[in-house]
Prior knowledge:
five-stranded mixed β-sheet
Amino acid sequence: MRHVIALDVGGTGMKAALIAADGTLLHRARRATGREHGPDAVVETILGFAADLAAYGVEYLGEPASAAGVAVPGIVDDRLGTAVYSANLGWRDVPLRDLLSRRLAGVPVALGHDVRTGGLAEGRIGAGRGADRFLFVALGTGIAGAIGIEGRVEAGAHGFAGEIGHIVVRPGGAVCPCGRRGCLERYASAAAVSESWAAATGDPAADAADCARAVLSGDPNAVRIWRTAVDALADGLVTALTLLDPRTLIVGGGLAEAGETLFTPLREAVAARVTFEKPPSILPAALGENAGCLGAGLLARDLIATPDLTEVTT
């Protein structure tokens, strides 16, 4: 059966699948990255995992994979197929696409940024299905985004498109690891809310999910922290809406798991800030932790129809 390999690489673990040309999931697998053994070991683990998936396809599906797609964290130059930088994995300038293609006996490989790849899946087959223009925003340890245009996701000239977390929403505010002050992700990421709530409670294990539960119970400190995050997020999103004019805004990541505790005040805050802009539909992401793997499968399936790797954008 004709199929592709899809591989989503995280900081500590990898999710993978074999996906038929029509999108049917044929096989799933997981494996640790082996990050504790160093960046070279992570690369070798990825290559070995992909080779094992390829062998499974030959044995159980009767033919080798037609293509492979892989999503990785950090900065990605998808045109060169290089993982430029990843703090999580300790990478710099890893030619992962070529390494994978060689390990897979010349099979074409597409490499994508993890959030943009997850956003591709949300836009095509998830919450944004049918939208010609969408913006996907992931509220996790940081905040990143994916700009969707006619079924594709824009990477930008240097692979930085969609880095909405580094829009300055509070000039002169908290220092961000990027070097600026007042970046959105210092106020509205799941990590930022967790940090604020842990400080307020004196419990270093308290996190954003705990804060959301406390908001529902009416805790005034939780309400204050949550409001601060929602206001900052609305300010950043309205800047993005003004620039991009998406039809649909999809919000995912850890903070979005709070459901309407987040979405109700966020929709209200965005509506209060727009003037001439046309407000988009603001929707929760639909694919959860599977978005990256499904998006990697879409990248691989695109290669079957688009053999020229330079035409694949994530």
